[in-house]
């Protein structure tokens, strides 16, 4: 792929100075770029490189005044750094879109069906009756179990495992190593102290536009579905237990965990390492601070909580501050005890 | 596989109404099932579908009184929902048992030995001198290191990694992405502030009937064995450090962690995200609440603890409640100080 | 590989008794070892086995006085146990070094380059333009994305995923299932409550001598690099967010997490399950206790903190102790209130 300075200017809404026909095919740092590369100059400290760089096109800030002639074509924008980042990101998106076909060896069962523009990486496994939509990219070493359905435009990163019968919506991204649909943690205690496995025959439904981080785990439902509603964003290493529902546009930060059958509303924000017990519900718009332990339902929308056990954010902060002052409080209490003792003694002496 | 209404009645201990020879080969919802499918009716709201369904066999509740003739064969049981779940679970078990042979490509070293009825999925790796028992199912992309021994009837889900020399008992299930036998975290501090790796030459022993969730990590011992005793159940994303022993029938919920050389007794219950420091022991039957941080040995069996640092459950709850009331306590203290100050002032004035 | 008693003595700095030419090729326990095996005797309880063992060479303690003749060649050292461990570890190292070549099938792109003595396990994936140094061992099912650079002497365990453009230094070990370079968790909130992905176009740089445990996740930077400085040791299941810098020789225990853009100094020790918020800095030599929640920068080097929110270790311990005594404090407060009330009543009665 090659782009002219003029094409780049259109993509990032900039103005060309110099030869608009100059072509670039890759990216480089201004201090090391070669001919045919695109660079940018954001930090004034590096301005000298602008006059010596071999880059064919350089993105610069609108307000930069040239002190010498420049051989590269320039593209001026308000913020060179962010324009360059935008370009790089579009470029990577384009490269992902262009990934198509099957790398060898991969395993695709005869009964699986696929849309247009699908990529199946080497050592990826596609089970029986799997249905894969258009433009889905399945990276190497991923595992897609029997009867799984994956909607259009999903990206399944390396080593993701999706157990049988799960449903993935459109535009879902799942990062490396995450596991969708492992058995819920259900064991019935027996009289002899042992545990008998409760069959986990439900599935996981991940709706449209969800993003799931790396090495996260989302268990299948005992019966029915564990559901991640559309637009939810889940970070790395989070745990979602069986029969949980995570609401629309809810955000869960890394290493947080939600226990079985809990229902989390829409637009909830859950901080890192927070834990939520099972069988409760969390109202829409709630904010759960990092490391909190939520042990009761939150019924009022937009409530903020913190602490373990978690309670109302403002009171909790006040209690936490007082906790730190406990040595001082204890000292004040002791002094009072002395004074009162003295007062009592005097009274008796009266 | 096809089953008659009569056979299904035997499996779930029910009574047939209608043609006991009707055959089914798959499952469906009562509102959409086709001929040759098995459905169930539990929720009275859906009763109308019973009279129109194309399903060949329907499981219904004992006490349901038919208002119209039904073309499907019926199987009556006390709880249609749970009978259907049982059937579905048995069916999946059967399907797992029927998985045998090797998918291509997989890697099995010449020196590995296998029992009867073993399944090796595509892209699974079986190292040198590995011994695999009867009816073991190793799913795609799993890695079994050199000299590993796996007992009969184990299920090793996709992408599980078992390092060299580990021992897995009979009837063990390990979910996707879990790592057994990675190096313990042992580094000796050096004079210059750097760390020198302490060789981790032990292994992990997982006894019979253990279940391990997804993306969990169990480190090999420095010397000797990290041991998971029979019947223990470990949830997703848990961490078990080197030389730990987890007792018989002990249950550990998601994201909990146990530090090195700690010995956990039998029938202990450890809540989610709890942490236990190294080199301590936890008495049989202890209950460790979610998010607790256990920093000392628990010597009395059946002790319940909570908090971080964790202590006796009942006192801890009382302290936690008072913590929340700290603003109130502080106010009471301030009022007392005022009153005593006043009393003192009056006394001086006397 | 076969070693003589004399060669073993050289390796562990011991003295031979008996035939220095006796050869061993593997290891065994003294009670079960066969001819051609090396055993050790450390525990005096097992001394009887020394006189009956079939092992060809036995490592024993310097101070052991033989009560009977021994047919095995003996190698005397100050500590037989640790000498045996050293040998076993050297042996495993040697075996790892001897792993070379490519197992079949593996996927190596044409544009990848490799040094000497490299091992590529079955089902490993090596992307475009990847550069792999000398003596690098890449185990089965690992994924190395496009443009990744891996320095000499690295060990990449099974199922590790390294996303495109990341840089791994020399002598780095990464344990099974860890993910390096997944997208940072960056989403810009939109007016309608949804979130728009912020492109994550940076990478991860892991410097020389770093060890990373199993199933850990290290996200790529939004722009620039997430950096793990030389000599750092990261345990299992830890989370390092985008644009974080982990300092030289810093140690992070299992399940701890560091949020985005935080800069952790050198020689810091972070306990298990600790969490550190984003956009702060932690001074060199700080000690962060297990399960702590660090919400503010630590500016003074060598500070120890604990608690959630974390503060100064000594005060925090005092506050924690007082927290446990809150029921007692509350009782004292109530008693004081009674007494003061009484004093006030008496005063009014005056």
From TrEMBL, chains A, B, C:
Transmembrane region(s): none
GO biological process: lipid A biosynthetic process
Principal EC category: transferase
Keywords, in A-Z order: Acyltransferase, Coiled coil, Lipid A biosynthesis, Lipid biosynthesis, Lipid metabolism, Repeat, Transferase
Gene Ontology cellular component terms for the protein in this record: membrane
Subunit structure: Homotrimer.
Database matches in PANTHER family: UDP-3-O-ACYLGLUCOSAMINE N-ACYLTRANSFERASE, UDP-3-O-ACYLGLUCOSAMINE N-ACYLTRANSFERASE 1, MITOCHONDRIAL-RELATED
Protein name in the entry: UDP-3-O-acylglucosamine N-acyltransferase
Species the sequence originates in: Flavihumibacter petaseus NBRC 106054
């Amino acid at each position: 792929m090659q782009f002219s300075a003029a094409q780049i200017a259109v993509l990032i809404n900039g103005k060309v100075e110099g030869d608009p026909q100059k072509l670039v095919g890759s990216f480089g740092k201004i201090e090391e770029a070669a001919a045919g590369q695109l660079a940018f100059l954001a930090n004034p400290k590096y301005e000298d490189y602008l006059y010596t760089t071999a880059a064919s096109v350089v993105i610069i800030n609108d307000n930069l005044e040239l002190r010498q002639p420049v051989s590269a074509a320039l593209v001026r924008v308000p913020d060179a750094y962010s324009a360059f980042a935008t370009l790089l990101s579009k470029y990577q998106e384009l490269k992902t879109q262009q990934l198509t076909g099957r790398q060898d060896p991969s395993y695709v069962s005869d009964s699986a069906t696929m849309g247009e523009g699908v990529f199946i990486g080497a050592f990826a496994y596609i089970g029986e009756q799997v249905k894969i939509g258009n433009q889905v990219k399945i990276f190497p070493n991923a595992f897609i179990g029997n009867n799984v359905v994956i909607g259009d435009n999903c990206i399944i990163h390396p080593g993701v495992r999706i157990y049988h019968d799960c449903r993935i919506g459109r535009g879902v991204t799942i990062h490396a190593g995450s596991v969708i649909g492992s058995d819920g943690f259900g064991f019935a205690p027996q009289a002899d102290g042992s545990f008998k496995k409760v069959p986990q025959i439900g599935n996981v439904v991940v709706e449209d536009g969800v993003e799931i981080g790396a090495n996260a785990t989302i268990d299948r439902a005992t019966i029915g579905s564990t559901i991640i509603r559309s637009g939810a964003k889940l970070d790395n290493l989070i745990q979602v237990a069986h029969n949980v529902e995570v609401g629309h546009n809810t955000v869960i930060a890394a290493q947080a965990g939600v226990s079985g059958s809990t229902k989390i509303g829409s637009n909830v924000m859950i901080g890192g390492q927070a834990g939520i017990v099972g069988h409760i519900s969390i109202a829409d718009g709630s904010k759960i601070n990092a490391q909190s332990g939520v042990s009761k339902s939150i019924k009022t929308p937009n409530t903020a909580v913190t602490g373990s056990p978690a309670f109302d954010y403002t009171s909790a902060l006040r209690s936490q501050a007082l906790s730190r002052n406990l040595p001082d409080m204890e000292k004040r209490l002791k002094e009072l005890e002395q004074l009162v003792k003295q007062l009592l003694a005097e009274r008796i002496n009266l």
